[in-house]
Design brief:
Layout lengths: L6 H10 L8 E2 H7 L6 H9 L12 E2 L13 H11 L5
Length: 91
């Protein structure tokens, strides 16, 4: 699949594909994972602009306080909850 987005978005989206099914990471953890530790907010923006959801699993990214954050895929936050429950993630 050829990804279309900014270099930063593509970097984030490629990283999201490494998050195992049934696991979640915070926006901060993703920022650290892409070696850009101060970019948690930009990571959240890249997730919000992910046109490849749920194939690129931005539903596996949550806020540091444990809240779910948003979901830009079809169905919004209800779909994020459904996808996480399917993966046996405790919400």
């Amino acid at each position: 699949m050829t990804l279309k987005g900014t270099k930063f978005q593509i970097k984030v989206w490629k990283y999201l594909k490494t998050i195992p099914k049934g696991k979640v990471k915070t926006y901060k953890q993703v920022a650290l994972g892409i070696k850009n530790p101060k970019s948690a907010r930009a990571v959240a923006n890249a997730c919000a602009r992910n046109p490849y959801a749920p194939k690129i699993p931005c539903h596996r990214v949550i806020r540091s306080d444990g809240a779910l954050g948003g979901y830009s895929g079809r169905g919004g936050i209800k779909e994020k909850i459904r996808l996480l429950r399917l993966e046996k993630v405790e919400i």
